[in-house]
Amino acid sequence: MKNCIVGLAGNPNVGKTTVFNQLTGMHQHVGNWPGKTVERAEGHFDYNDVRFDVVDLPGNYALSAHSIEEIVSRDFIIDGDSDVIVNVVDAANLERNLYLTVQMMELGANLVMALNMNDFAQKKGHIIDIKAMSELLGFPVIEISAKDKTGFDELLSTVKKQASKPKDTSVKLAYGDELKEHVEEIRVLIEKDNSLNDVSSFWTAVKLLENDEIVLEKVKNSSSGNKIMDKVNAVSKHLQDIYGEVPEEVIANARYAYIDGLIKETVQKPAVEKPTLT
Ligand code: GDP
Ligand code: MG
Ligand code: K
């Protein structure tokens, strides 16, 4: 039997644990992440000749180095030997949810989106063009209801397919010409350094501009660390000069601009938002 390791990732309260419980039933094991006080739930099940091992990742809004939960999640994506990351998304709060999605795209995660709670989105009058969203994101988007266990067949067969696909490491994010060009200047230096090959060079470049402690430490100790840091400092200064904001904010704004564009192209909303009780 083939084996498929899946991580469930998403914001808090989007239905990750509901999906995890529906899939793995009684076959669960709860412990801690090695050396961390963060709970790690894993489980397994067989489906169509595939043995799925599922890890329920902590709920996150970002993948920065600011919290243990975020570090646990990103380390799992970077070196957890997972085949696919299933990004559980609350369709009724797409903008906030996509902010994490975009960061997993930066990281080069092999993603499948499980679009949950679409009934709430519909109650708000939001009509999501799932096919268009999938095409623009560059990975499959499957509608599910975690609670009612609908969409699970399609989700699992899609995950199985995605697991055997070679990882597409090209980044489909449009972050504006100015930022993109400067990220690229840093990225090519990282790409040339063989000691920095274990993770997406695009992600490393973005994290350096974001002042990410863990990535900074690693790059500073690499063979071309000085050269890379000279470039990062020059680019940071340049971005502050033209945007009047620290690079971390410039990058956050670029992510939101990308998400905004994506939502405009794929979600029909009523002219006046309907009030809802959720
Ligand atoms: P997690 O924080 O992402 O693990 O989310 P949970 O699985 O704990 O779910 C959070 C809340 O959303 C719970 O009250 C669930 O019952 C509810 N929930 C999960 N999936 C669905 C769904 O498909 N539809 C609805 N209406 N509620 C859901
Ligand atoms: Mg949970
Ligand atoms: K490299």
Essential attributes:
18% strand, Ferrous iron transport protein B, binds guanosine-5'-diphosphate, 47% helix, 278 residues, 11 helices, alpha/beta, two-stranded antiparallel ribbon
The fold-level CATH name of the largest domain is Rossmann fold
Helical content band: 40-55%
Beginning-to-end CA distance, first to last residue:
43 Å
User: N-to-C SSE series?
Assistant: EHEEEHEHEHEHEHHHHHHE
Evaluate the radius of gyration.
19 Å
Arithmetic mean of pLDDT: 94
Please state the second-level CATH architecture of the largest domain. 3-Layer(aba) Sandwich
Structural class based on helices, strands and sheet pairing = alpha/beta
- Number of distinct beta strands: 9
Shape: globular
Report the portion of residues in β strands. 15-25%
* Order of neighbouring strands in the sheet with most strands: 2-3-4-1-5-6-8
Question: Biggest β-sheet: count, sense, barrel?
Answer: 7 strands, mixed
Bound molecules: guanosine-5'-diphosphate, magnesium ion, potassium ion
Instruction: Please identify the top-level CATH class of the largest domain.
Output: Alpha Beta
**Unreliable runs:** none
Number of helices: 11
